[in-house]
Amino acid sequence: MQKDLAKLRHQRSQKDFPDLKLEDSEYVVLDVRRSPLGLVAIWGLAALIVVLLGISFSMARFSDALNVLGFQAQALNYILLIIMILLAIAILSALIATKVYKENRLIVTNRRLFHHNSISLFAKSLNVIDLTSIEDVSFRQSGIIDQIFKIGTIRLSTVGDETTYTFKYVDTPTDELDTITHLVHQEKEREKEVHS
User: pTM for the complete prediction?
Assistant: First the structure.
């Protein structure tokens, strides 16, 4: 019965995560993504820039300084063009930041951990970590924002090369921490049984 359930989970995981190279009887347990709060921050900043550009244009349009300095109506068109370019840059930057933010994932199977890390459109990495090589799993919340919105950073330390992997902006990191810790212990026990 247990093997049948593992086989069904494996098939479902292969269907849901076709880009992962899953081993036999390996299945996805957690698909951790960053908190939507980060997207609110990205688009909040973009909205602030749009508002500031709108205020700048209004001030330039209705300002007597243009007349005093000898600017004509054509100068206002140049100012409008510059503001439109800055507006397009702000929106494009927010779209790119959204894509990069969403590409960061932590996929945990019953055997391994896949850490998709993206810092820009052209800088990405994938770390595949065996659960048996994980020595320490912890989380950190720093600052009042993390406490209020219950977000934090998951840290994973490995045995041997002593590499530490971090995954930031996770909703309720204690839930994921408990699940990952349980899976690490479970996989280490399975390895002991296989080698005994």
Answer: 0.81
